[in-house]
Hints:
This protein is mainly beta. It has one domain (2-66). Helices cover 13% and strands 36% of the residues. It contains 1 helix and 5 strands; from the N terminus they run E-H-E-E-E-E. A hairpin with an 8-residue loop joins strand 3 and strand 4.
Amino acid sequence: xxxxxxxxxxxxxxxxxxxxxxxxxxxxxxxxxxxxxxxxxxxxxxxxxxxxxxxxxxxxxxxxxxx
Length: 67
């Protein structure tokens, strides 16, 4: 899965979530994103090579924690 914004690093994703920005995930053609729960995300987006991976917690469709 990916985040809607194309974060270039895991740190940038963590900083956005910590700053209270709304971050959502999507799964391009691979199913649906959980409304509540956790999932794995990667970045940057294809066709760039993936350089980071993270597990995120989702509440009401928004990322609330990055691990």
